[in-house]
Structure formats: C-alpha cells, structure tokens
Write a structure and sequence with these properties.
alpha+beta; 7-stranded mixed sheet; 7 strands; 44% helix; 14% strand; elongated; binds iron/sulfur cluster
Length: 349
C-alpha cells in the first residue's frame, strides 16, 4: 500500500497538470473549481474558471452579486443549478460560517451543491484533510488496480472509498487525490490506457491479468429520448419578449423564448405553438414564419426546437404573464440563457 502511495506522489511531483486553481490554491478557488468540474472536462472549465475569478475574485464578491450576474458569467458551462447553489452557498458561508469555507466534511456536505465527492476534494485539497474523493477518474484507476468486475453502484463505491482511504497519506492527502485524478486523465484513460507509462503498473491487477480494457464494467446504455419543442420569438419594433424559467427546474431562472415541448408527431407546429401559448400563458399570437430549427443534446434527452417569428395583436400587448419581459434586442447579452436561446438571440442581433 505504502509503495503505491510513494510511486503515485513521485509521479505527481513530475507530471502534475498546471491548472489555474492549483496556483495559490485558496479554499475559495478549490471550491469554485470543484463545482465547475462536476460533470465537465478540465479543458472546458479553464476559461470559465478564469472568467469567474476575474468577476468574483473572492467569496464576499460572489455572495454580494445578484443571482442573474452569476448565471451570466456561468452561461455556456451548463448544469446551471451548480451556479445557483454556489451563489446560495456563498451567502450561507457568510451568514453561518463567519465568511470562512468550512474545513469539516460534514459542514461542507451541508452546503448546497456539495456531495460526498466534492466535500472530499475540497477538504483534502484546500485543507489537507485525509478524505477520499471518488470522481470518475479515481473510480476507474482503482477499479483497474483492484481488477474489480462489478457493476458500478453504491457497494462498489464504498469498497473503492475504503481502498483509497487505506492508501491515502495523511501528510499529502490533497496531492494524493489530485495525483489519482491526473493519472486517470492522462494515463489510465477510459479507452486505451497507457500502461507502459504508468507508475503503478507492477501493482495493477487488471494489467497483470490483461483485463484493463474491459474495466470498469458499464451499465447498458438506455436509449436517449428526443423531444420536439416549439418556441415563439415575439417581436415588437426592436424589442423581443423573453420568459424566465421557473427557479427550481432545469435551466432554472434562465431566460428563453416562450414555448414548450409538443407531441413528437405534431404536424402543424405553428398551430401547436399558438395553442400552447394560449393555454399556458394566456397569450394569443400571430405566427408569421419559421426562424429556424435547432438541435441540442442535454444529458438525458435531445431536443429539436423550432422557433417561429411571432407578433402579438394590439389587444394582447397590455398584460404580460408573470416572469415575461420585453427586452431590447441590443441588450439580450445581459440576460443569461441556455445554448439554444442564445443561438436564436445571436441571429436576431
Ligand atoms: Fe491503469 Fe494500466 Fe496503470 Fe493499471 S497499469 S492503473 S490499467 S494505466
């Protein structure tokens, strides 16, 4: 066990990735980076992290900002509940933890957006606490080291956590976790692991048994459902009507062009759009023409969104539904949006 640790740390000392949150790793930087890295590749995160730090360099600046500013800076990174939770947690830390990010694993897990993995990563990297942090890279490396042929799940995870904890050096817990992450990312990759370059080759049961390409076992992939969506781009002079999504769902509190999904076999999309705007929002619109069709893949489904250029008859213009607002087309960039709404906005501008 000790040998694995020593080899891993030695490899890390020579091969650690240079990342913006690793230079001067304050708890705030570590926390923001770990939230951004949830379900997102390191290369994608880097420019967003830099932009976020330039705008919110410390915890008080984040806590004092409006949520919409935070969403705006986050725009494009996806999984927007992460940004909302980061903002909420910043305010909780100011109010309940005297402005200091807690080092204690239980207190960390009590903050919005922080689960077992993120708490372990923050506690070990920012505070040196001997806590495991089981992300996809660490999971893959340890499954191969132990040659575990098990379906992924809670039991496997608790076995892996136990192993990582046993090997974890108390003096360099954060480096150890990051070493496993980097090894998984650069050497023990999902397809075609570079075993000849691996410092743990002689300790790896999967390598010895030639099973590394089969591991980790994967759950059979479910078919990804598709949704047909219609949306109305309702203009009035140089203004366009935006709707804010409910706070508690997907893309919560982001702005979009009003619409919704319709049955897959809908043939008359303009009529379906008119009907749903009337029934959901009480709006009667005139549909003029189709602006475009946009495809987008979310984690659990894909969409094809048909956007239509629309007008409101004069009588409809006075009372807007709650969370609807007219926006100057030139000001659309100030309203945080998901990818498809932003594409439409760019075409308008
Ligand atoms: Fe991964 Fe190969 Fe190293 Fe084993 S020897 S940990 S399979 S890279």
């Amino acid at each position: 066990m000790r040998q694995i640790t020593a080899k891993l740390l030695q490899w890390y000392d020579q091969n650690a990735r240079s990342l913006p949150w690793r230079s001067d790793p304050t708890p705030y930087k570590v926390w923001v980076s770990e939230i951004m890295l949830q379900q997102t590749q390191v290369e994608t995160v880097i420019p967003y992290f830099k932009r976020f730090m330039a705008r919110f360099p410390d915890l008080p600046s984040l806590a004092q900002a409006d949520e919409s500013e935070v969403l705006q800076v986050w725009e494009g990174l996806g999984y927007y509940s992460r940004a909302r939770n980061l903002h909420k947690a910043a305010r909780i830390i100011i109010a309940d933890h005297a402005g200091q990010i807690p080092a204690d694993i239980t207190a960390l897990k009590g903050l919005p957006g922080i689960g077992a993995y993120t708490a372990g990563a923050i506690a070990s990297i920012a505070f040196g606490a001997p806590e495991p942090a089981l992300d996809a890279n660490i999971r893959r490396v340890t499954i191969r080291l132990l040659d575990l042929h098990e379906q992924p799940g809670k039991e496997t995870d608790s076995r892996l956590r136990k192993f990582v904890r046993e090997v974890l050096p108390h003096s360099r817990a954060g480096d150890y976790n990051q070493a496993l992450m980097d090894l998984g990312s650069a050497v023990c990759t999902p397809a075609g692991p570079l075993c000849q370059q691996c410092p743990l080759q002689s300790d790896c049961l999967a390598f010895q048994r030639g099973t590394q390409a089969e591991l980790p076992l994967r759950k059979p992939r479910a078919k990804v459902p598709h949704k047909l969506v219609v949306a109305a781009v309702i203009t009035q002079g140089r203004k366009v009507l935006l709707a804010r999504r409910p706070a508690d769902g997907m893309l919560g509190n982001l702005w979009e062009y009003p619409g919704a999904s319709v049955p897959e076999r809908t043939s008359n999309l303009p009529a379906a759009l008119q009907e749903l705007l009337k029934s959901r929002f009480g709006l009667s619109v005139v549909v003029d023409s189709q602006l475009g069709a946009y495809k987008h893949a979310y984690t659990h489904f894909t969409i094809t969104l048909h956007a239509f250029s629309c007008r409101l008859p004069l009588a409809e213009q006075a009372v807007l539904p709650p969370d609807f607002t007219w926006v100057e087309i030139a000001d659309l960039s100030a309203y945080p949006m998901g990818k498809v709404a932003r594409l439409i906005s760019r075409e308008l501008g």
